[in-house]
Structures are given as C-alpha cells and as structure tokens.
Amino acid sequence: MLHSTFVLSILLSSVSAALTDSSLEKHVDSLTLSSSFNPIKESYWTGYPHHRRTPFAVSSDGSTAYLAYLDSSETDVHVQEIDPSTFKAVGDEVTVSGAKEAGGLVAHNDGFALLTNEALPSGTADAPADSTPVPVLYRYTSGKQTWKTFLGGPGVHASDGLSASPDLNGDLAYSETAGMYGAYFVVTDYSGWAEGHFGDSIQYVADDGSLKTIAGASSSWGCSHNTGIAFEAADAAPFASICADDQGEIWLNSETQGMSGVKISNENTTNGASNEAMGGMSGSYSGLARFIDSDSYIFSWVSRGAIDLTENAWMGSGYTNAQNRTNNRNVAIATFTDKKTLNGKEATSEVGAADGDSQVNWITTGTADCQNAHVAAFDGTNALVTWEEIAQPQCDFIAMGCKGAFTGSYFQLVSNGEKVGEALKETDVFVAGDIVTMSDGRVCWPYVAMDWTLDGPVSNPASVSKM
Questions:
Q1: CB 445 within 8 A of CB 26
Q2: Where is the signal peptide, in residue numbers (predicted)?
Q3: What is the pLDDT of residues 369-423, one digit of tens each?
Q4: How many separate domains does the chain show?
C-alpha cells in the first residue's frame, strides 16, 4: 500500500565514523505534486517491482533544485523547482507534454535540462513505426523552453542507422568546464545494420543546443542489449561511462563507447539481461559518482560473481562466458583514478579460469539478495553506497531479479574504497531518484514512502501526490 512520497537527506557530521541513525534526516511530505505519479515500474522479463525513477538535480551554486517525474498517465513529464533547504515547491511546475519517461535532469542557476523520449508527430518522414518514442533533450530557462534537440530519430546519425528509445533507461550529465551535455541511453535501431536490435547510444549537446558528433566520444550504437548504464561528467568529452552488455562483461568504456575497454567484471548473461547490475528497468542512475574536486570516480553494482570461464565464440578473443558463483546478488564497488583508469586489476579474460571474480571489491558477501545499488560522493575520498535486501530470496531467473520479503535498505560509508563501520539499516527509506551532493556536504535523494513489497510481480500500483 502506498502512503505518500518523501524527500530524504543524509547529513554526515563526521566522515571518519560509521553512519548512525542520527546521520539520516527525513523530510516527510515536504513537496505537494501538481499531478499524480505512479512510483512503481515493472522490471524486464520478470515483472518484479522497481522504483520508477524520479530525477533530481541541484544547480552548481546550490541555490536551486529540480525534481522530474512522469505523470501517472505515463504521458507528460513534470519538472518542479524546489527550495534545496526546505524541499518545498517554488513556483509552478513545467510540463513537457508528450514526454514518456523522466530519463535524466540537470539543474542550472536559471533553469534545467531534461532528457526524455517522445513520439514524433504523425506523418513525420523516416519516423519509427507505431509511434515508438525517440530520445530528446530539452533546455528550459526561467520556465520557458530555450531549445529542443533530438538525440535519435530522423536525421540523427542516419548513415549508422536510425534509432528509437521505447525504454530510455539512461542518464544525463553536464560539464560546466566543457560547456557540454552528455546523454547515455538505450536504443533500438529501426534502420541500418543493427535494425531490430537493442544497444545504446552516447550523444553530446553544446550549451546552445547543437548536437555534436565528437570522434572518440559520440556513439550511435555501443553495447549490445545494454542492461545497465553508468554515466558521469568529466572536464572534457568523452565523459566517464560504464555499460553492462549481454555478452558477459561490465566495461569501463569511456574511451571505446562499446563492448570493450577496461573489463570491470565478468557476469553471467541470458535473454538480454545480466543480473540487473545497475538497476535494470528504470535504473541506470547514480551508479557512478565523481569524487568532489577530483578526477577520480567510484562505481557500484550488484553481481552473482563469476566462475568457470569459457570462450565466447561469438565475440572472440578477450570475451568470455561465466557461470554464477552465487544464486543471490551481492554489492560490489570499483574505483578509478580517472575516467579511463581502474584502480587494481581488470577482470580476467582467461578461458578455463575457475575464478572469474577475484578482482572484485565486495561490499556484501552474504546469502541475502541485494538490488537497487547506488553510490554518491561526500567529498574527495568518502562515498555512500546504498542497496536494498531480501534476506531469504527466491531467485528463479539465472541472470535477472529475485523475489521475497523486503528486509531493509542499507547505507554504507566507504572511504578510499574501504568500508567504514557497519551499514545503517532502514525499513522505511528507499532510493528512487538521483543521489545529489548538496553544497553543504549532504547527499540527498527523492523516494516514495510505501509498504515496499518485493515478493511478486506488480499488481495495480496506486498513485501518489506528495514527495
């Protein structure tokens, strides 16, 4: 049963000590929505419940925040300005009519940018069939649309194949230094060599709204059946990017934009899925964080581990298939000295290796199933890693989600890649939107207060009107 929606902040008084109950600050019913919102999204294949993402962003000067959410009708995205000190609404919300998904949000001192997808007008030449939506980036200034730039559909990288995004499942980042937006999102091609297949795309847009094709940074089609995206700004394109493909790997692909680069992890994959490593449907946000005033990054994901590596004959040398080490998923992290360099060893590509996960830095190692992992940076060395658990999971699908009674959300302080103390456990707090580092050092995110159940597919979820 759904009750209401909250915005929550964590206030870390000392990053040298473990998190405690006093570290967590809840802002209950602080925001009244002008429209209703359905906070549950069915996951791919299983139909199990996921939190429907509510993108959240704070301006660079810390004075302004914005929250985006999809209307409960599943058409129209609403963007509300919020006071970042009280989490109350400021002015009227902006409605982007026809938008189908709140896929990413950047806050500016004078407005916001929204990544979404929408159907093209009837009769548009070279549009995808059946009104399938295409990706688009909007910029609003002082409540008015400044520009609108399509990131797929007619005329966008036409020589490589035209793309649509029925499920956007990606993220938006912005670099003030570069004066550039970067968007990383799931696509399906409806023309060209990849027609009918699912992959992903990375596109860059300048401050004036012009779409830029940048060699070594832009990508029309990258990771096959991408089941997870992690994306974060850098001082220049390419931005830091990670993908989970359907061939058995998680890649740091900032330099390659495809199924290559630095192999972070071996994963078992099947039916276009790889354990919902970065959240699955409505996931792919706050999985990668840049440390404050630093070029280094931290990444979080969930994994079943990897054993008994065999050759991936389809992909060739350097690509492997793996069996799961555990039936449940545990939380892992990796750190990077910069957008292209992993701290420590890569995952092995040795065919015949019995151990394919010895390089993994595990945050959890138990028998509980972990999902919905996210990460945020407090400062230059300290980060928050968070996830949800099912203590006694039923995992019927080899590379997808599990079901069972929800037993808590966990919040773990990590310093220099190592856990600090025990994780804080909460049963009435969830992460359902981007985790943002506030100007005062807090990290904050939106979520829906509910009796959260994970023991079966979604059934007639109710709508809410407060956050």
A1: no
A2: 1-17
A3: 999 999 999 999 999 999 999 999 999 998 999 999 999 999 999 999 999 999 9
A4: 1
